[in-house]
Design brief:
Elements: E1 7-9, E2 13-19, E3 35-39, E4 45-50, E5 55-58, E6 61-67, E7 75-85, E8 88-99, H1 101-104, H2 121-138, E9 143-145, E10 163-165, H3 171-187, H4 199-202, H5 206-226, E11 232-234, E12 237-239, H6 244-269, H7 288-294
């Protein structure tokens, strides 16, 4: 179960929430409405255990809104939730930070906080285009039969199995691979500053950017698949899963060398022009030959 780690401002309200899961890892409602207890930084109970005000927002998700006074103590407050899931009593303790509005702007970022993508509409057009190419190349999308909380297969009204998404990579992970690939494209000599909003990236250079993300995906999945390479033996029956980890690692190494060479050829073809050397309008620039001639009076050309 997980709770939102909230940061609250004095004089305003904070929304505290908790998500419960069943033994199968799926969201599951509590046997009854959970109770919440709130304590200030001095461990003094501000609200005793109560279920009043606790509302069910979704399956297993419960929310409590607490109004924070303008003169309460600043610091880490504690919200403790107690509930029963399928007859099992649970007690969970979480923290939320109470601070002033002025100090809430700075110092609210913690180590390992999740960072959201901040793409513009123009960038999203490029990302979505490349994402479609990458999904097709990785064959990342998949389906599996859906099971209920008891492990039984779920069927529709006609008795046919229903399926749910079972993708190898999530969209966010694939977008991360594309960002890594674009960074590699920009930093491979010569340095450039292309973004996903540039049409040339998701049209002319789509293959090389998608290939870079594809290679990163192979390296990422190879570590996971290598951990599954073991023999299963049960009652004299042996099963050896295919060595996908070694296969992915080999494919990654083969693609990587050719990818880097092709990327260098591409970047050499779009080498940025000089800022002033050799330009027609400014022969007195910092070009060494011209600087040398400027200081020879007998052979002065300017």
């Amino acid at each position: 179960m997980a709770n939102n780690r909230n940061k609250a401002i004095r004089g305003e309200s904070v929304e505290l929430s908790i998500q419960y899961y069943g033994p199968d890892g799926l969201p599951m409602d509590a046997d009854s409405t959970p109770e919440i207890k709130i304590e200030n930084p001095d461990d003094s109970a501000i609200i005793s255990s109560t279920s009043t005000g606790v509302t069910r927002s979704d399956t297993g998700l419960y929310i409590y809104t607490y109004d924070i006074g303008s003169s309460v103590d600043k610091g880490l407050w504690t919200d403790t939730w107690s509930a029963s899931i399928d007859g099992v009593s649970l007690l969970n303790e979480f923290k939320f930070l109470v601070t002033d509005e002025a100090s809430a702007v700075a110092g609210t970022i913690s180590l390992a906080d999740d960072v959201d993508f901040d793409f513009s509409d123009a960038e999203l057009t490029g990302v979505n285009t490349l994402l479609k190419y990458l999904k097709s190349r990785l064959r990342s999308d998949g389906k599996k039969p859906k099971r209920d909380s008891y492990g039984a297969f779920v069927t529709d009204g006609y008795g046919e199995l229903t399926y749910e998404d079972c993708n190898v990579f999530s969209d966010e992970i694939l977008a991360t691979f594309l960002c890594i690939s674009l960074s590699e494209f920009n930093m491979t000599p010569f340095f450039t500053s292309y973004s996903f909003a540039d049409e040339i990236i998701y049209k002319t250079f789509a293959h090389i950017v998608v290939e870079g993300a594809f290679i990163v995906g192979l390296a990422s999945q190879a570590l996971i698949e290598k951990g599954r390479d073991f023999t299963i033996s049960d009652g004299g029956v042996n099963y050896q899963p295919p060595a996908l980890g070694d296969f992915l690692a080999t494919t990654y190494n083969n693609f990587l060398s050719s990818h880097i060479e092709r990327l260098k050829f591409i970047k050499n073809s779009i080498r940025p022009g000089p800022a002033s050397y050799g330009t027609f309008t400014n022969l007195s620039s910092g070009a060494p030959a011209f600087v040398r001639l400027r200081h020879l009076r007998s052979r002065k050309i300017i």
